[in-house]
Each structure stands twice: as structure tokens, then as C-alpha cells.
Amino acid sequence: MKKYHLLISVCFLAFIFSCKQEPLVLSKIEGKQIGIKDSLEIDQDYDAIIAPYRDRLTDDMNAVLSYAPETYNKSDGHLNTAIGNLMADIVFKEGDYVFNKRTDKHIDAVILNHGGIRSIISKGDITTETAFQVMPFENSIVVIALKGQQIDSMMQYLSQAKRAHPVQGIKLTIDRDYKISEALIGGKPIIKDKTYYVATNDYLYDGGDGMRFFKPNDSIYHIDYKIRNAMIDYFKKVDTINPKIDNRFTQTK
């Protein structure tokens, strides 16, 4: 009996697949206009779920951390800017604290990139949101052990880039032709075979902005500290910021 049923099923399927299928033909197209509104209706049930988190996030982002007596932007100087110097100083100070705790070593210099500064710091209250606006990326601080010869390459890069890349711990002077006339680390001449610890971010370490002088290196230290978090920590400690354009990277006339 089972064999009989199986035979009937096979014959039925064979009949179905042997039938000639009519080709599908598009007969008509219908459509309707959907109006675009300038607002969307809020799903009240969904909004009730996310409201506490949204309110907490808003409070956190609007928390006042410090104060800016002036407005600072990355175009206010030729080879160093107040906001760029502030960024480098923050990485130098806050990053060195973490680096020293973990390695018993100290950061000698800092180099960041001019393009990494994404917003101004406006005169008035500095909030958590300010830090997110200036540094919206998830870049973390890394410290690279470089020999003096590579530091020379870093100085050459800065002189040829002709941009206000934020730096700290160095003093670089170039002439009218952008040739280096003085290059110091910690106020002293660069020693070729000495190891220096240079802080930057992971994007630049990987060659961002053409900074290829980081490789090869003696070693690299990932301290798991985002630049944005370093900024927030710094702002919490300082009642009023006071960044200045100085002589860390200048050009003689």
C-alpha cells in the first residue's frame, strides 16, 4: 500500500512539472502619493522606554566642566594655535599620568594632527558636549618609543607639512624657506641613539596624515585612554582654561 501511494505521488508531481507554464507578463503599474511631513509622530510606548536614558544623556552632555574666557579655533595661528597647544598639553599631562603609572616612564613629546580638531571652543561654559564636538572620533592615546633619528624625521615632517599640527615637549624653529634652524626635545638637542617616548593617537600611528616616521620603533604602549576622555578629565580639574600661542613651533622672518 505504501509503495502504491508513493507511485501515485511521483506521477502527480511529474504531471505538474510537465504542464506548460504561461509566461508572466506585466499588465499594469499602480502607485500612490505619500506625503512628506516635517515631523514624525512619536511612538509613545517606545518613547517612554528611552526617555530616562535620553534625559540622562542630555544631562551628562550639558554638564559644565570648565570655562573658556575666549573663543579658540584652529586657524588663529600660523604654526601653532591656542586650541592645538591645549590639545597637545592635555595629552601630555593626562596621558603621562597614566603612562607613568603603568610603565614608570614619562612622555617626552606629543604630536597630534591639525585636522583632528573638529570644532572651536566657544567663549563661555565648557561642557562634556564641547569635548565631543572638538574630538568626535574614538582615537586613543598611544606612546611610541622612538630613537633620536626618528625624532629627526618627525621634525622634518613638521617643517615640510607647514601646518599647525599640535605638539608639546618640542621646540622647533624653521627659517623662511621652511628649513629647520633649531630642534629640541625637552629643551635639549636630540641625541641620535637615545630613546624618546612620543605620545600620539592610534590613527596617526597607523600612518594617518602621512606620519610614517613611527615605524619601525622600539616598542608601542596602548594605554587605553581616549583623547576625548583625557580632555574631559582635564576640564574637570581646571576652573578656567587659558591656552596660548607660544614659541613651541615658529618660523623666523
Task: Characterise the protein shown here.
- The protein is α+β, with helices and mostly antiparallel strands and 253 residues long.
- It has helices at 2-18, 44-61, 82-103, 128-134, 148-161, 202-205, 227-237; strands at 64-68, 109-111, 124-127, 140-147, 167-168, 170-174, 180-185, 188-189, 195-201, 219-226, 249-251.
- A hairpin with a 5-residue loop joins β6 and β7.
- The longest helix is centred in the middle third of the chain and has 22 residues, at 82-103.
- It is extended and about 80 Å long.
Query: How would you write the strand order of the largest sheet?
Result: 5-2-9-4-10
What is the beta-strand fraction?
Answer: 15-25%
- Overall shape: it is extended
Average pLDDT works out at 90
Taking the sheet with the most strands, its summary is:
5 strands, mixed
User: What does the oligomeric state look like here?
Assistant: single chain
Rounded to an integer in angstroms, the radius of gyration calculated over CA atoms is: 30 Å
Total DSSP E strands: 11
Low-pLDDT runs of 5+ residues are none
Please work out how many helical segments DSSP would assign. 7
Order of helices and strands: HHEHEEHEHEEEEEHEHE
Helix content: 25-40%
Q: Structural class from helices and strands?
A: alpha+beta
Alpha carbon gap, first and last residue? 106 Å
